[in-house]
Amino acid sequence: MRVLYIDVDSLRPDHLGAHGYERPTSPTIDALAERSTVMEQTYSSSSPCGPSRGCLMSGVFGIRHGVLTHWGPGSRFRFPGQAHTYFRDAPTLTRHLRENGVSTVSFSSFMDRHQMFWFGAGWSQMNTFTLKQGDEDADEVNAAVIPWLRENIRDTPDLFLHVQYWEPHRNYTMPERWAREVEHAPIPSWLTPERVAAHRESAAPYSPQELFPGRRREDAPTPSMPRRIDDLEDAHRFFDGYDGAVRYLDDQIGMLLHELDLLGVLEDTAIILSADHGEALGEQSVYGDHTSAANAVHHVPMIVHWPGAPAHRQQGLTYQLDMDATICDLLGVPVPEGWDSRSFAPAVRGESGWSGRDQLVWDHGLYCAQRVVRTPQWLYQRTYHPGVFEHRPTSLYDAEDVHQVDDVADAHPGTVAELEEELVAWRQDQLARTDLPDPLDEILAGGGPYRYVQLEQWMRLLGENGRESEARRLRAHIEATARTCVA
């Protein structure tokens, strides 16, 4: 069986028509979803890019594979301590598939962008076709993939083909005409003028007045993005940039699938579309980045077209890394015992009795240090260090409050205590399976989650932007919260 895995960076499922979005972003993906299994409640177990793809490659949670940030303490991918050896009970997905007769081919600049060269382990072919480190557009990806398909696809019947696109990761560098495809449609109604005004009070990176950290405030990196967000009209324009990037990506995916059709292999090719993580678009005052363990950052699409399987939707909770075991299961390959990945193949096959996981735990360690417990009813967010953001030590949201507007922790102290106990138990269970420390502890011991944005640098920038009082308020919050939160 040929399996095409379309790995999209920063794609929110709720910005696809297949998930009910009303803006015209995704006709190709929607058509694929109509003949696929759509997993409605799939979440990345770690964010952002590096930690998530560590989970994809290893089949285990970030607390065990070691990558919860992009460099420095807490970013070391964990192989066995001996040369020329790999974990036998938890091999990388690529090595495991190859050992079971499946060719593994990737088209991705991910490992060059983040210098995470462990990602290259086990592939039959690793095509780093550009040195742009993720700044290439989707047409450049297709320009490399499509000639390879024409030369190889018919002769490779047992194949796992990984194609990674960076859209809609900011800075929305697609041709401007794609933003015009969506600009006349309304943006989601949860984002009101009052909420935009409240978001403007934030002094955190990627907030309305600080959209581009490190860049002069009068500059925007592309014409598709506003310089700042002063009102709902500016927010609309920001959404046009993100949604325009999704629409452009969708068109390029359509070209890829059309090529498979021309080559006569589309009907018997399994197609899986997912993402490494989502993107905040106003949630917690962040616009166009992935800076926390928020629901918007961790909820990802999981669309699985498997030839012969029925088209339907599933509501059970799943992790994005569960794709590893699912692929193995559907291919008839043994699922390694040491993986945290669990197969949802019964859901893809339409079998009765599958219900998903009882709860999920996910984490983020790049911009802040957080873990979340997600149950069918609740989302509990635990902050161990806020970075340069204004996160509370503990927050609780109704699971239906997907934009995390109303923190109800103070009204439900018993639920907060119960879910904190669940989180502590999960962490203890995970650490009992490894002799290495929690990488989140390594991040905290190394001074905190300061990577792309350093504390003093950010305080200076706020001062230069005339926001001295906001800088003082933010510093006081960070100092108080870090003292309270660090485990």
From TrEMBL:
This is Sulfatase. The lineage of its organism: Bacteria, Bacillati, Actinomycetota, Actinomycetes, Micrococcales. SUPFAM superfamilies: Alkaline phosphatase-like (SSF53649). CDD domains: sulfatase_like (cd16148). It comes from the Bacteria. It holds the Pfam family Sulfatase. Residues 202-228 are annotated as: Disordered. Residues 3-333 form the Sulfatase N-terminal domain. PANTHER family: SULFATASE, SULFATASE N-TERMINAL DOMAIN-CONTAINING PROTEIN. InterPro entries: Alkaline_phosphatase_core_sf (IPR017850), GAG_Ulvan_Degrading_Sulfatases (IPR052701), Sulfatase_N (IPR000917). It comes from Brachybacterium halotolerans.
